[in-house]
Automatic annotation (TrEMBL):
It is found in: Cytoplasm. Contains large globular domains required for ATP hydrolysis at each terminus and a third globular domain forming a flexible hinge near the middle of the molecule. These domains are separated by coiled-coil structures. Homodimer. The gene is smc. This is Chromosome partition protein Smc. It comes from Rarobacter incanus. The chain holds residues 1 to 199 of 1182 of the full protein.
Length: 199
């Protein structure tokens, strides 16, 4: 599995449709300060479902839409599409290529699609959840984040490793199941009391 193409249209500084093509292996994006290198990384996080405007270096989600320049009017929507090569079947979907798209309209409307079919954010998150590209994206290491990992306490570091290994998902499910068991035990006690009273 590897990222094949990323297309931005109306996303941050990318007003016109811009497609970046990647090959397997390492890709470096170089350019002068303020030319949009970090915006490309923001677009990757955004199309994979990032919900935090701050993580995307904005104040509100609408800030990802091209805000206009001296020579160009603001746009009404931002669109990003990411095509992933799924030749090795790492994504649990029966396609050799998977395109995830996200669109945000200035009026607040938002859409996701997988291979052109409209879907929910949850579908995108579930598709990516076992690839390490899911909700808590440790695949994207922002400026300063490496420092935070190096300074983390052993417990915090264990959290990072568990998330990367996919253990955290099961821990959360276990906690939820235990809470349900507790609540069922309380219901059972109440039922036994009632039965005793009726007898
Ligand atoms: P550096 O090397 O300094 O980190 P960079 O290449 O990573 O820079 P970015 O931070 O990706 O640059 O891009 C910053 C540019 O994107 C700024 O010029 C900013 O005005 C522009 N920009 C950000 N959001 C928008 C938006 N919504 N509309 C138009 N331009 C935007």
């Amino acid at each position: 599995m590897y990222l094949k193409t990323l297309t931005l249209r109306g996303f941050k500084s990318f007003a016109s449709a811009t497609t970046l093509q990647f090959e397997p292996g390492v890709t470096c994006v170089v350019g002068p300060n303020g030319s949009g290198k970090s915006n490309v990384v923001d677009a990757l996080a955004w199309v994979m479902g990032e919900q935090g405007a701050k993580t995307l270096r904005g104040g509100k989600m609408e800030d990802v839409i091209f805000a206009g320049t001296a020579g160009r009017a603001p746009l009404g929507r931002a669109e990003v599409s990411l095509t992933i090569d799924n030749g090795d079947g790492a994504l649990p979907i029966d396609f050799a290529e998977v395109t995830i798209s996200r669109t945000l309209f200035r009026n607040g409307g938002s859409e996701y699609a997988i291979n052109g079919s409209p879907c929910r954010l949850l579908d995108v998150q579930e598709l990516l959840s076992d690839t390490g590209m899911g909700r808590q994206m440790h695949v994207i290491v922002g400026q300063g984040q490496l420092d935070a990992i190096l300074r983390a306490t052993p417990e915090e570091r264990r959290g990072f490793i568990e998330e990367a290994a996919g253990v955290l998902k099961h821990r959360r499910r276990k906690e939820k199941a235990l809470r349900k068991l507790d609540s069922m035990a309380a219901h059972l006690t109440r039922l036994q009391d009632l039965t005793a009273e009726v007898r």
